[in-house]
Amino acid sequence: MFEGSGTPEAGSLERACGPCRAIDQREIDVDGGARLVPVHLQRDAADHCVSHSLVGENARRFNGARQRVWDLLQDPEVLAKALPGTERLTLAGPDRYDGVMKVSVGPMTAAKFDVTVALADKRPPEHFTMQIDAKGALGFARGTATVDLQDQSEGGTLMQYSSDVQIGGRI
Asked: Can you give the chain as a three-state secondary structure string?
C-alpha cells in the first residue's frame, strides 16, 4: 500500500530507495505480530526517499483488570518495553517521558535517538494517545500512537493500538 505522488508501485523496486528495498513489497511484521505499512512521504531531486511513514495497528489481551493495565502503561519502565526500539524512558514531568530509542529502516543498522514521549487525551482507564518525538545524528522519528483499553466479558483487558510514525533523515 503506497500513497503520494512519485511512489513506486508494489513490485516496482527500481525507484525505491536503498533502505526501502527490503520493505517496499509488503507489510512488515514487528514485535508480536503488529503490521506496519511503509509509505514514502517525501522524495529528493534524485527520487530517493527522505521521509517514510510507518502505519500500524494491533491488539493484545491481558489477564489483568483494565485499571491495572492502565496503571502499568503509565509506568516509564513498562511503557519503554511497549514501544519498539525504546531502550529506556524516565519521567520528565507530568505525562512526559525522556529516553533513548533505536530506529532502523530496512537493512540499515539501528541508530540511537533521544526520544520524548508525551501522553495526551487521557480518559482513565480507557484511552490515551502518545506523541513521540525522536532526534538523532542520522535523522528523526515522530508520530502518534493511540491506545484503547476494553474490559472483556470473559475477564481481562483488550488493548487495541494504532500508530503512525514518520521517519526521515539519512537513515
From this structure: CCCCCCCCCCCCHHHCCHHHCCCCCCCEEEHHHEEEEEEEEEECCCCCEEEEEEEEEEEEEECCCHHHHHHHHCCHHHHHHHCCCEEEEEEEECCEEEEEEEECCCCCCCEEEEEEEEEEEEECCCEEEEEEEEEECCEEEEEEEEEEEEECCCCCEEEEEEEEEEEEECC
Each residue's pLDDT, cut to its tens digit, for the chain (171 residues) gives 222 333 333 333 233 344 444 333 334 334 444 444 444 444 455 555 545 566 788 888 888 999 999 999 999 999 998 887 889 999 999 999 999 988 766 666 678 899 999 999 999 999 999 999 999 988 888 899 999 999 999 899 999 999 888 877 775
146: helix, strand or coil: strand
Query: Distance (Å, rounded) from C-alpha 129 to C-alpha 67?
Result: 17
* Other beta carbons within 10 Å of 113: 25
Dihedral sign, Cα of residue 83, residue 74, residue 128, residue 65: positive
My answer on whether omega of the bond before 125 falls inside 30° of 0, hence cis, is: yes
